[in-house]
Amino acid sequence: MACSLLPLPDISRPLVLKLTSSPKLWTLLALRCPCHCKTKPSLTKAVYTQNLSLSLSLSTPKIDSDRDPISLLNDRILRDYTKRDASRTAMDSKEAEKYIQLVKEQQQRGLQKLKGDRQAKKVGGHSGSDNGSGSGFSYKVDPYSLRSGDYVVHKKVGIGRFVGIKFDVPKSSTQPIEYVFIEYADGMAKLPLTQASRLLYRYNLPNETKRPRTLSKLNDTTVWERRKTKGKVAIQKMVVDLMELYLHRLKQRRPPYPKSPAVAEFTAKFLFEPTPDQKQAFIDVEKDLTERETPMDRLICGDVGFGKTEVALRAIFCVVSVGKQAMVLAPTIVLAKQHFDVISERFSMYPDIKVGLMSRFQSKAEKEEHLDMIKNGQLDIIVGTHSLLGSRVVYNNLGLLVVDEEQRFGVKQKEKIASFKTSVDVLTLSATPIPRTLYLALTGFRDASLISTPPPERVPIKTHLSAYGKEKVISAIKYELDRGGQVFYVLPRIKGLEEVLEFLEQSFPNDEIAIAHGKQYSKQLEETMEKFAQGRADKEAHAHLFYPDKSLLSDQALERLAALEECRQLGQGFQLAERDMGIRGFGNIFGEQQTGDVGNVGIDLFFEMLFESLSKVEEHRIISVPYQSVQVDININPQLPSEYINHLENPMEIINEAEKAAEKEIWSLMQFTENLRRQYGKEPYSMEILLKKLYVRRMAADLGITRIYASGKMVG
């Protein structure tokens, strides 16, 4: 039999370990038969394993010495020790408790944000009906809020379709009471309203129309139980992933920024009266920077013109006033140029604070000059596009990263942005965040501030949705030109621009028309954008969104069109993002496709289970046990060949040294094994087995396992 063993990345601290990608590898010793037989081992202790799994064979034939399992394991231990940050200190039990408590508090705040007033029901007293969330909120749905046809989940029976609420007389009474009627695959169920209120959940978000694969059966709940179990497994993996993310983030340290009078002077220069939401965002960011020791990772969500930039400007001043650098990242050069102009104007009163723009419009010499200034700390605020994330850009003392519209960056850029979050403060600005960002914020795993109140002078953009027609296009453009305005005509791709230009020149021969796209020469593009950028005003703007024949569109595309039509008012960018999240389902919320996991049990039961698991997060912490307390009752005691015994100088002393090395730590055991091989060459198979038993026992101790035993083909 073969044992999948896990090298420990940092055995000096309590570990939170991941489930492996293979569902069969559930434990420290997840057995795999070398002949790939279908016998499934019985396991009595489930411990989450890391993706790093290594087969240490206890009975398979000896393999090539260069690639034997012990060598592979030692390589991984060595790699991990060399990668370890020398400044990383061990986390003792009390420190671990503190961080776990912080995570629990964070998820409770997230629960309140997530539920809000929707479906929020106070639970009497504090009797534990709060599903482990530690708050008075409940995920269960109010039957009166359901519409006929909505999909619901009964915790014990499964997924059904809500039909309605009707009065009926129960058998034991003459008085009619209200019943909730639910359709299942094999019949109709009726539940007293009070019972339904305790056991029913929504399957979807309120605006989501996704259908479950099948309805559950009333008379056979085995399929439902299996689906629920799959959901629990996915949730437990998710909890461990989130714990790793959060513990890593909470372990980062930087001194809080000072609350200096200079910051107050800077904020006093803001010419407008902040809205209530904006004031709260100012407070949130100020607390993140001046009262916390962990780097900020906050999302500021608000429509265009609602004041997100001022929130960022105050954060930038707080950071650069103490000698650190700030990077402002925008997805397009147009946005980057706008930010540069605003920042330059706002900081014009501070000659010691230097602002720079990295642009494709610059010459090679100008770019090199900027790179040197960034490296030497001569630029305090650097504005630009994804080029700021390149390997050639070396920061002198970066303290803050401001990201505008993160959802518009590519995958590689997002990964680079994520890498900054462990070392610097990060502020993300967005009108319509992507579902993953949005739900991480809503569930409390990312801090968020919502600015939904428009400034008094802000005029909403009027959105028009219609099927494409040349006459409609001409009419819309003519209206705008007649009132002295400018027009953007946007196509999804460069191909086709020339045909549109020809059509527009024929329709409006007396008006100046220009083309701009990313493959143009830098100077040409810059001149075009500079000419056009002078036309923004406080008039009511119009957005005409044209689509092809509706019969050619997918259901998702039609839903998105409906969402755009409904979310036209000021401040509804956030609601539009929520609708988009509902349309997409919950794919990529936590960085990988979770749609199937949520689909197994429905969204509200899934998140109730998630928060319940998070409330018991300390159960996922591994506490090591003394090496001597671990029993390895596997009846494999091979005899060393006589020629090997004669080859060794003192066999008993060597075996005792191996035991002492294993008792100390896995690093010592690895060093002992390497030294043994250097001195005496590759050991025979029987000695390899003895060493493997020591590795098994050492790692079991690190993972808190006190006994490993064999019974026939089973290991417990």
UniProtKB/TrEMBL annotation:
It comes from the Eukaryota. Keywords: ATP-binding, DNA-binding, Helicase, Hydrolase, Nucleotide-binding. Residues 125-134 have a biased composition (Gly residues). InterPro entries: CarD-like/TRCF_RID (IPR003711), CarD-like/TRCF_RID_sf (IPR036101), DEAD/DEAH_box_helicase_dom (IPR011545), Helicase_ATP-bd (IPR014001), P-loop_NTPase (IPR027417), TRCF-like_C_D7 (IPR037235). GO terms for molecular function: ATP binding; DNA binding; helicase activity; hydrolase activity. Residues 111-134 are annotated as: Disordered. Residues 289-451 form the Helicase ATP-binding domain. The keyword Nuclease does not apply. This is Helicase ATP-binding domain-containing protein. It comes from Fagus sylvatica (Beechnut).
